[in-house]
Amino acid sequence: MALSLSRSILNLKTKRQSPLFLAASKRQHFISLASQFTPPGDAEFSKVLYRKRSGGLGAVRTRGSWWDLRDIEAANSSPSNPVTVSMALIRLWRLIGDDKWIIFLGLGALFIAAVSEISMPRILAASVFSANNGESAAFFRSSRMLIVLLIFSGICSGLRSGCFAVANTLLVKRLREILYASLVFQDISFFDMETVGSLTSRLGADCQRLSHVIGNDIHLIIRNVIQGTGALINLLTLSWPLTLPTLAICFLLAIIFSIYGQYKQWLDELAFIGIRESAANGLWNMCFVILYRSTQVLAVLLGGMCIMNSHVTTEQLTKYILYWVKLQRVMGNIQLVNVSFHYPSRITVPILDQLNLSVQANEVVAIVGLSGSGKSTLVGLMLRLYEPVNGQIYIDGVPLKELDIRWMREKIGFVGQEPHLFHMDIKSNIKYGCPRDVEEEDIEWAAKQAYAHEFISSLPHGYETIVDDNLLSGGQKQRIAIARAILRDPAILILDEATSALDAESEKYVQEVLHALRNESRAKRTVIVIAHRLSTIKDVDRIVVMDNGRIVEASITTTTCLGRLSQTLLNGYRKTLNNKKNES
Ligand SMILES: Nc1ncnc2c1ncn2[C@@H]1O[C@H](COP(=O)(O)OP(=O)(O)OP(=O)(O)O)[C@@H](O)[C@H]1O
Q: Is 418 near ligand 1, meaning CB less than 6 Å away?
């Protein structure tokens, strides 16, 4: 929106250079930009109360006129957030934080400079007339006064622009911090819809523009108001008959400005929609929490009676309640029931179609299938990077979407095809993102599990070796990423095996890791591996074959794999097998 506004302002600037038009556009731009950085919430309650009163209580009932959006739909198609100038200023004021003294200092300097500048013409005229009349004492007094005012206005003007420039810099910094923090926690689907360019522009140019309004325009407005008022008082005291026609023209200009400022009405309408949405959300939350909690209360009441009647044991009741309260520990059972999915950016292309899959805790399952059959998408849904369009995913019997997403992701280790390593030592790379304190031996243990310890130890500085682009092969990078995932001790480990792009040495790494994971009790966990090579699926419990967004085989073993793969898949794997034979 900020970009399109920027473009439209640019167009307006090139088409119409009228200062009035530019002023109106600038104000609208400022409000729109401010709304990007502020959550909706400061609602105009007086308006709502007024509307509610005018509609009566009946308007608020289900399907009552209070919820009706058609009037606004018809009147307005702009999706901007409802933020008024004052709201935007208040929020920006909060952003200044502890550095408000800079603004106060700037305002003080601004006031003194403005008053000095207003006083100068009167004293200048007085000194000219006193010189003309030969009144030397008055002339020197006026001249001294002029010099003092000159010095004051010079120093204070400098101080004013310095203070606002510093406030401007602080504001840009904070806006970017807040915006960046907000971007980091967006859903993956948000990044599908937004281009990198527009996000970069928000962080860069838009923040800069918004703070420019604060750093320059606002203090200029304040200065002009003070100087205008002073000039008006001066004019009125000099000659009110001359001043009144000027005032009439100014009044006319103010009316024209206010006509351009009519968009406020749209902001009010949008604020009203926001309030109704919040109210609907509040009602939903209230109903959900009350019903959810009442199941626990009922469980305790009825369960207590059943214990007294010896229908259930205390242990059974405790387990029952604990399941309802929260999933304490992830065992690693995964169940996908009738899951369908399409990407938000391509809603007409179904990727997963009524998919059903069940993975038991500690099972090692390989997912195979031709490129584009939806394997990575399936994993993306398990990681809750996206929500299924239809169907449900359960972890240990609890719907995935009801679990705390951060907590859940801590329990899942994921290693993608191109894992990212940081320019720091190998030890820190393995430790990266681990939510608990770990010792050197834990890091080595994880590296051993990932078959990385041997090559790390052979490096000149071992675990202290700094990772750089040319130091490690693709397979070695992946082993470090697996060590990183294993160190977090996830209940579910998902490996997206690299495709043919990697070197020959990496051919066996997933196979070895899977072998270790299956045979070491400390490493027991559910493992899902997206396999591209036959060698990988040798050691798994089960092979799941995907084709065109569906699971066509869900429980074949390695020995029967080749025999039962569908013809299409078989051809693909035969080709791989032949290539391998030719190579060897
Ligand atoms: N972010 C996305 N937005 C839109 N479409 C996508 C996105 N990611 C994947 N797709 C499409 O979804 C389909 C399934 O892709 P997916 O990556 O899940 O297949 P895959 O079986 O993992 O393939 P490969 O083995 O090549 O990794 C493909 O047609 C792909 O183009």
A: no
Helix (H) or strand (E) holding 216: none
Q: Is the pTM of this model over 0.90?
A: no
Where among 239, 257, 275 does a domain terminate? 257
372 lines ligand 1 (CB under 6 A): yes
Number of other residues whose CB lies within 10 A of the CB of residue 379: 20
Question: Is the CB of 388 within 6 Å of ligand 1?
Answer: no
Query: Beta-carbon neighbour count of residue 261 at 10 Å?
Result: 14
Ligand 1 nearest-atom number relative to CA 373? 21
* Same domain assignment for residues 376 and 475: yes
Question: Using a 6 Å cutoff on CB, does residue 348 contact ligand 1?
Answer: no
Q: Residue 118 sits in a domain of what CATH number?
A: 1.20.1560.10
Of 257, 281, 296, which residue is a domain's last?
Answer: 257
Q: What SS3 class is residue 565?
A: coil
Amino acid making up residue 137: A
Its domain, for residue 387, covers 334-583
**Per-run averaged pLDDT (10 residues), the chain, 584 residues:** 36 34 39 40 42 52 60 50 71 80 88 83 78 81 85 86 83 83 79 77 76 69 80 77 76 72 66 74 73 70 77 70 64 91 90 92 88 90 92 88 84 84 90 85 88 88 86 82 88 77 55 66 77 73 88 68 53 60 63
Q: Cβ–Cβ contacts within 10 Å for residue 15, how many?
A: 9
Residue 545 Cβ contacting ligand 1 at under 6 Å: no
User: What local confidence, expressed as pLDDT, does residue 437 receive?
Assistant: 83
What ipTM was assigned to the predicted interfaces of this complex?
Answer: 0.97
Would the CB of 497 count as within 6 Å of ligand 1?
A: no
- Kindly give the distance from the C-alpha atom of residue 376 to the centroid of ligand 1, in angstroms, as a whole number: 7
**Which ligand 1 atom is the nearest neighbour of the CA of 380?**
18
Contacts of residue 50, Cβ cutoff 8 Å, sequence gap at least 6 = none
CA distance 314 to 307: 7
What's the CA gap between 501 and 481, in Å, rounded? 17
Residue 548 near ligand 1, beta carbon < 6 Å = no
The rounded Å distance from CA 518 to ligand 1 centre is 29
